[in-house]
Amino acid sequence: MSEDGPGRRSVPIPALADPDRLRSLDETRLDAVPDEAFDRFARLVGDLLDVPVALVSLVDADRQFFPGATGLPEPWAARRETPLSHSFCHHVVDIEMPLVLPDARLYPRVRLNLAIEDLGVVAYAGMPLTDLDGRVLGSLCAIDSKPRAWTKEQLRTLADLAAACSSELRLRIAVRVAEQARRRAEEAHDRLAMLAGMSEMLGGTLDVATAVDRLGHAMVPLLADWCLITLVDPAGRPRTVTGVHRDAGCEADLARFAGLLTTGLSAESQIRSVLRTGRPVVRAEAGLDDVARGTTHPELVPLAERLGVGSHLTVPITAAGDRVIGAVTLVNRQGRRGFDASDLRTAQDIGVRAGQAVGNSRLYGEQRHVAEVLQHSMLPSLPAVPGIELAARYLPAADRVEVGGDWYDAFVQPDGELIAAIGDVAGHDIEAAATMGQLRNLVRGNAYGRDDPVEDLVAHLDRAMGGLRVPTVATAVLARIRPADEGLRVSWCNAGHPPPLLVRADGTVSVAGGRGPLLGLARPPRRTGRTLTLAPGDTLLLHTDGLIERRDQPIDEGQADLITHLGAGGPGVPLDLLCDRLLAAAQQWEDDVALLALRAG
């Protein structure tokens, strides 16, 4: 049997460090501060047993504290706690039964306990206070400063009060557990909602940087206090590291931390381990030592200290074929619970979804590059023609691969005349662009070196599309421009395309009518040509329907708006500036836009 006091070594009491017992003690949310309910229990013990001191004493691993107390001398009354060197109650925790001592000075277990001298504890009677599982959290005790023979009635009263006090403790624990369960249920609901919306959220963009930013803000602060998202290059080395912190004041530190991390991971880095093996790593308790081991740059440790590190987990971001293309790291600061198996499952699910989004974004980027090369190869350089000023623009629909079926062309005939064309093939993908290329080449091959009327050229184009089985229906305007005494003579044929607009030198705007059937119909129609004259300073504007078509208004209204905008610009606007203004006015266009403008010199 052990004795407490200077010069005597106490045998360790395993029950004091039992994690389940300490968890129950923590769930009471009691500490060394007065609690009215437990002070009432202490007063009842003092009154009913006629003792000078009564305590509701709870015992953790290295101290006892008193949420309920009466009669304690100073300074202990103010402190509401003592070390275990002054505790009889921790022996109640040890033996898990009542401890009744008429004169503590006569019992080897406690005769050297400092409570005898410092607190005046001589007679002691302590009844166990238990949680729902019977674990002893402390004692309801009666104390006298002189020897005392405890009667059966007194001990029975003390036991009854201890049972009631235990019920109050259990109620506190149950409330705490219920609150935790409610929070966990809310967290689970929020996580499910986040996961349910994540595919749509990440799928709403094909830009990798935007997808990563959305991912970070979805996880913080719901899942963690801050996060890092690492993406690797084809060789598996960290290429970019980005982060999000719940505290906006930490943004600069986190940006610096993420920037240094791209080259500052050591061989022991857990991020590097996840990138290499594809297996997640969880540290429910972590600190700056983890950062120091995992990094090589000395600045990273003080940065991590400011950001806060209490626990962390890292999971892989996997693409098709379980190929690791990055990692998600979640970090909690001290004071927030450590990550557990539920957090790991959620993070792994996020890693898979992030991999799909990043993979799609990278595939889009590759397709976009191919599309840009294809599109630019099919958009010609405008020729220099004496007496004619030319300008052209092409822009893809917003948020789409930069390729589509809109096109323009202008080339000089052997006799010096200019052929100008604009058209639109259905679709917004590489297939549409390839068909557009076929059609443009047919226009060139069909018209070059021939002096036929434009309506005959378009009719021949109809027959060529049918005979060569060009798989599309398209619109186009084909125009021949030749010098005339009064300026330029323009002959054109419209195959289902928005009509050209004529902007006179004085700023007036009109529509060049004469719209015919589409190109590529099974039964080619008869084509009709039109003519007009451009005086010096006059402009002919050819455009595709992306400039005037809107989802929320008829195309006629869009054309009227365009005419109004052209008229408001006034006379003499430089041709390049005119084209730029038209595109700027279109704002977030919903379709590809092609413009071809020519002005008589």
UniProtKB/TrEMBL annotation:
Top-level taxon: Bacteria
InterPro entries noted in UniProt: Bact_Sigma-Reg, GAF, GAF-like_dom_sf, PPM-type-like_dom_sf, PPM-type_phosphatase-like_dom
Keyword Zinc-finger: no
Keyword Hydrolase: yes
Gene3D superfamilies on file: 3.30.450.40, PPM-type phosphatase domain (3.60.40.10)
PPM-type phosphatase domain residues: 385-600
Keywords: Hydrolase
Start and end residues of each GAF domain: 33-179, 203-368
Coiled-coil portions: none
Pfam families, sorted: GAF, GAF_2, SpoIIE
GO molecular function: phosphatase activity
Record-given protein name: GAF domain-containing protein
Natural source organism: Micromonospora marina
